[in-house]
Amino acid sequence: MAPDSNDQAGHSPEDRGLRPAETPMTAADRLCDRIEAVDAEILAFLPEPGRRARLRAEARALAERDTAFDRLPLYGVPVAIKDIVRVAGLPTRAGSELPAELLDGPQAPLVDRLRAAGALVAGKTVTAEFAGTAPGPTRNPHHLGHTPGGSSSGSAAAVAAGMVPLAIGTQTVGSVIRPAAYCGVIGFKPGYDRVPTEGVIPNVPSLDTVGLFAADLELATRAAGVLCDRWQQPAPTTPRPRLAVPEGPYLGRAEPAALAAFEEHTARLAAAGHEILRVPFLDDLAQVEADQYTVNRFETARVHADWFARHGDRYRPQTAAAIRQGQAVDPDDYTRALRARERFRDRLRQVMADRGIDLWLTPAATGPAPRGLESTGSGAMCLPWSYAGVPALALPAGPAPDGLPLGVQCVAASGADERLLAWAPDLLAALTPPGGTPRPRLGAAHLPHPSGERG
C-alpha cells in the first residue's frame, strides 16, 4: 500500500490529491458517496452500474502498483472523462443515439497518460451530441435551472459540484472556457497541438483541442504537465505578464452587465500592480467568425459523412442541421478559409510581438450562465482564440449580480502554455473578490460543497 505520511521527497498524500491518512481505496469510496448523493440533481455523469466496484479495483491496483507515490503526479486523483474520449472498459456514446459499435476503439493516449500518472477514472461525463450544440441533461450546480455550458457540460459541472477535483473536456470553439466560467471553476485549453487527440471522437479536427477543468490551479498545472507534449515548467522567477484588452467589436459581443463586471476585474488587476494595455484588435471580427464557421461546418460534415448517410435519422436536429450546412460549403471556400486562418494567426503573433503583449485579457463568456437547458450559451468570447489555436485559461472572478459565477479569460501566444499557468496564481489572487467565488447550492441535496477538498 502507498504510505500515508510524507515521503523522502517531501510530498504528502494530500499534495497528490488525497486527504491526510487517506488511501486510494478510501478516496474511491468518498468519490462514489459524493456522486451518489449529488449527481441525481446535477446529471453530470453517465450512469454506470458497478462504478464503486470498478473504482475500488482501480484504486487497489494503483496502491499495489507503486508505493513511491512521489513519482506519480496524479496519485489517487479522481478524474472525470468527457464522453467523446475512449476509455478502456467504459462505453463511448458521444451523447448520441448512433449504434455503439461505431464509436468503439482503443483507449485514448491521454487516458493512458492519466492512468500512468496515478489518476483514477471516476467515469464518463455528459457531452453535447458529438461535442456540438445539442445539449445533454446536465444542470448548473449553482442554479439547476441554468445551463452549465457546453459542450463539456458534465465535466465542468462535476468539478463545480465537488464530485471530482479534475475533469477532461474538449474545445472546438468555447467548450472548456465557457462552461468553466458558467460553473465557476478553473478551465484550461492548451494550444492546439499540445495534447494528442487520438482516441477522441472528432468534431472539427483542425480545431479540436483537449482541455481540462480543475478545482485549483496547482492541480491544473500538474495535470497539464501530464497531458501535454513537450511540457517544460518555467522558472519560478518568471516576470509578471504584460496584459492587453482587445478594444473593438470583439468586446461588443459580451452583454453590458458582463462588460461592466469585466471593467471591475481589470481594475482589480491594475490595483494589484499589473500593467494593462488597451489595444485595438479584431476590427475584422465578422470575417474571422465567417471563416471559422466555414471551416467548422465543412469539417463537421466530412467527419460524419458516412455515419450521417446511414443513420441520419438518429441525429438530433441541431447536429443534423450543422452537418447539412457543412455539406453545402464549397471546398474552395473551405480552402480559402484555412488560408485566412493562417493569416489571422500571423497577425495575432505580430500584434503581440509589436506591443509586447504576454496575455490578452477578456471576459470568459458573454455573461453568466443563461437560464434554461435548451442551449449551452454563446462561445463568442472564445472563438477567435480557438480559431488561432492558442492556449487559454478561464479564472473564476466572483459572482454576477444574480449570484451566478463570472470568469476572466487569459489568452497566451502559441507555445506559451507553461508560462500562462505559471502566471495564473498571481492573476487569480487579484481577481478573487473579498467574499471569494460562489459555491454551488445543490438544491434538494442540501449537501455542503467540499470547499478546499482536492481529492
UniProtKB/TrEMBL annotation:
InterPro entries, alphabetized = Amidase, Amidase_dom, AS_sf
A Gene Ontology molecular-function term?
A: catalytic activity
Q: Which residues form the Amidase domain?
A: 30-421
First and last residue of the signal peptide: none
Q: Write down the superkingdom of origin.
A: Bacteria
Locations of Low complexity compositional bias? 432-445
Q: Where is this region: Disordered?
A: 1-22, 131-155, 432-455
Annotated Pfam families: Amidase (PF01425)
Q: Which PANTHER family match?
A: AMIDASE DOMAIN-CONTAINING PROTEIN, TRANSAMIDASE
What is the protein name for this chain? Amidase
State the organism of origin.
Streptomyces palmae
